[in-house]
């Protein structure tokens, strides 16, 4: 039995580890950086301490003189979901790409107290990652739940802290219940099951959640499906509950709607978010949005349609970057 468990753990580690030849040092009080030689292909990894001491795992690739774009995953995810973006030659050439595991996810630490998942903590995590990579005023690309982090950052540090927002299967607005406005009715049921401590209920919710991330009929790679399932499995039930229940301060970012550009990319087959409602809702609240609805694509627009999504991201950043790409 012990050998079977060892093999299983090794196999799972191979699935969740990004493909890279660098060696990652364990987290310490002083973040350690690991680099390869060429700036256009080097993957730098670090653990950085957020303001409350929580260790956050992060990666960056590309020339840091380029405009930084931070990719933030959704509920139960990790940095591995953005592998297609981190392998895109045009993005690597023109941008400084950063990604990190949100607290309680992936290789980042996950405190069990509800207060550890308040808005300010997420803002502080982003700031710590940016400081670790010497990046300022990034464009923030958030998938699903990760799309709320720009609101956290603006509430904590003001709109000048970032250069723009890229929402991937996500949305934002001033209302306390904005998620109930833009989300499909099935999302609440899925999140309830994911917070369960009943093994069978959690298992069923996890499998349903995994399938719901993509358009019906989309053939998801087995490895990617296992990354989703594994990412949810390693989260503590309390962390899943706190993450799903946290509030988002939409007021400050709405007040700054005329100061920041927004790129909204949604899928017509998104089972989580109604992209057209996002468009209407954000337009009504005077956000400056560039909106794209990808036909036949589900919740994971960047994964299901990487070439189209990456092209839109690069065009958007080129258009709005202060140091033109």
UniProtKB/TrEMBL annotation:
One of its GO terms (cellular component) is membrane. Residues 1-21 form the signal peptide. Keywords: Hydrolase, Signal. The keyword Signal applies. One of its GO terms (biological process) is acylglycerol catabolic process. Pfam families: Abhydrolase_1. It comes from the Eukaryota. GO terms for molecular function: monoacylglycerol lipase activity. Residues 68-305 form the AB hydrolase-1 domain. InterPro entries: AB_hydrolase_1 (IPR000073), AB_hydrolase_fold (IPR029058), AB_hydrolase_sf (IPR050266). Gene3D superfamilies: alpha/beta hydrolase (3.40.50.1820). PANTHER family: MONOACYLGLYCEROL LIPASE, MONOACYLGLYCEROL LIPASE ABHD6. This is Alpha/Beta hydrolase protein. The lineage of its organism: Eukaryota, Fungi, Dikarya, Basidiomycota, Agaricomycotina.
């Amino acid at each position: 039995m012990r050998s079977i468990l060892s093999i299983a753990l090794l196999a799972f580690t191979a699935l969740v580890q990004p493909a890279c030849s660098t060696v990652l040092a364990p987290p310490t009080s002083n973040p350690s950086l690991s680099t390869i030689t060429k700036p256009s292909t080097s993957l730098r990894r670090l653990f950085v301490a957020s303001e409350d001491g929580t260790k956050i795992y992060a990666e960056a690739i590309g020339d840091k003189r380029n405009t930084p774009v931070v990719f933030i995953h959704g509920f139960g995810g990790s940095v591995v979901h953005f592998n297609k973006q981190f392998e895109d030659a045009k993005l690597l050439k023109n941008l400084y790409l950063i990604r990190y595991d949100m607290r309680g996810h992936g290789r980042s630490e996950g405190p069990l107290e509800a207060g550890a998942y308040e808005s300010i903590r997420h803002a502080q995590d982003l700031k710590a990652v940016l400081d670790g990579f010497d990046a300022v005023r990034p464009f923030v690309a958030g998938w699903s739940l990760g799309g709320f982090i720009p609101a956290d950052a603006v509430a904590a540090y003001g709109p000048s802290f970032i250069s723009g927002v890229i929402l991937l299967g996500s949305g934002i607005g001033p209302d306390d219940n904005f998620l109930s406005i833009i989300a499909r009715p099935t999302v609440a049921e899925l999140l309830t099951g994911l917070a369960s401590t009943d093994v069978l209920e959690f298992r069923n919710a996890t499998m349903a959640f995994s399938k719901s991330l993509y358009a019906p009929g989309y053939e998801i790679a087995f490895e990617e499906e296992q990354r989703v399932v594994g990412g949810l499995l390693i989260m503590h039930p309390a962390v899943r509950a706190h993450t799903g229940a946290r509030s988002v301060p939409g007021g400050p970012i709405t007040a700054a709607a005329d100061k920041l550009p927004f790129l909204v990319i949604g899928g017509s087959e998104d089972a989580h978010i109604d992209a057209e409602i996002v468009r209407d809702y954000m337009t009504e609240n005077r956000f400056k949005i560039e909106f794209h609805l990808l036909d036949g694509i589900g919740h994971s627009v960047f994964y299901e349609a990487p070439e189209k999504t990456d092209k839109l991201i690069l065009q958007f950043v080129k258009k709005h970057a202060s140091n033109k790409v």
